[in-house]
Design goal:
Largest sheet: 4 strands, mixed
CATH class of the largest domain: Alpha Beta
CATH topology of the largest domain: Signal recognition particle alu RNA binding heterodimer, srp9/1
Number of domains: 2
Number of helices: 2
């Protein structure tokens, strides 16, 4: 991409300029950052009054949350006239039941509609859908 630094693994991680991420709107970005940091075992790398971000221990990807006044959570599955989901996060796990239980313990809730046996759709504390899944060939 023009105007973007090439990744240089020899440069210390926090000094690199090729970070990329996904940003979700939230009514309480700091609380959502704490949820995902605990869920994924990532660290909170930014925390300000209007946003926060988490990142894995290695690499230059992040998941950020920005304050959104009047935030309306999406519905799953989609429903006419309701706020539609425009994206969701997927996380592969090795033990689906244990991963779902952990997410629920942290404040997520299972969605009423579950499309596949090897996938569980959950809603984070702000209502964003996310999926935990096991490889379909391992789910049997």
């Amino acid at each position: 991409m023009r105007g973007r630094s090439d990744g240089q693994p020899a440069v210390p991680r926090m000094s690199r300029h090729d970070w990329w991420g996904v940003v979700l709107e939230a009514p309480d970005p700091q609380a959502l950052a704490r949820f995902y940091a605990e869920l994924l075992g990532w660290e909170i790398v930014k925390e300000e009054s209007d946003g926060a971000a988490v990142a894995p221990p290695e690499g230059v990807a992040y998941l950020a949350f920005q304050l959104s006044e009047g935030y309306v959570p999406p519905v799953w599955p989609a429903r006419a006239g309701a706020q539609r989901m425009t994206m969701h996060l997927d996380f592969e796990v090795t033990e689906l039941r244990a991963a779902v239980a952990h997410a629920v313990e942290l404040g997520a809730r299972e969605a009423g509609h579950q499309p596949q046996d090897n996938v569980r759709v959950l809603l984070d504390p702000a209502g964003h859908p996310f999926c935990l899944y096991v490889d379909a060939s391992d789910a049997g």
